[in-house]
Design a protein that fits this description.
By secondary structure, the protein is mainly α. About 85% of the residues lie in helices and about 0% in strands. It has one domain. It contains 5 helices and no strands.
Length: about 130
């Protein structure tokens, strides 16, 4: 009798742990969408902004981001050149195995950036909440 109680308790504990892990994982996957809006929404909630205030704040922050983007755009080629030169210098100090690992990381980041760009462009095409700079 004691053995069956222990087995049932272990099974129940295992089910709770598995459920917790699955719930945590699902939460991470679900909340990772729209991630760049999360800090903004958290700020809105902390400040207890009304819908009208949130809409105005969105417009202001989007305009700010567009202005910053417009300032940075002409510097893009120079920034890319600096990044490329630094990357080449980094490659010179790494072992072949380390270079391979770094290139894998760079490729993965480029893949993520590409997916984010596609997602952003598709949201723009659908007219969803993404800023369009004028």
């Amino acid at each position: 009798m004691q053995r069956s109680k222990q087995t049932a308790l272990m099974f129940l504990l295992g089910a709770v742990l598995v459920g917790g892990v699955l719930g945590f994982s699902a939460d991470r996957v679900i909340t990772s969408r729209g991630k760049h809006w999360a800090p903004r929404m958290r700020m809105y909630q902390d400040l207890a902004l009304t819908e009208a205030q949130q809409a105005t704040m969105d417009s202001l922050l989007d305009a700010r981001n567009c202005q910053i983007g417009a300032l940075m755009k002409p510097m893009g080629p120079q920034l890319d050149s600096i990044k490329k030169a630094a990357h080449q210098q980094v490659l010179q100090i790494l072992t072949p195995a380390q270079r391979l690992k770094l290139e894998e990381r760079v490729s993965e980041q480029q893949r993520r950036d590409s997916l984010a760009r596609v997602r952003r462009d598709s949201l723009r095409a659908l007219g969803k909440s993404t800023p369009t700079c004028k």
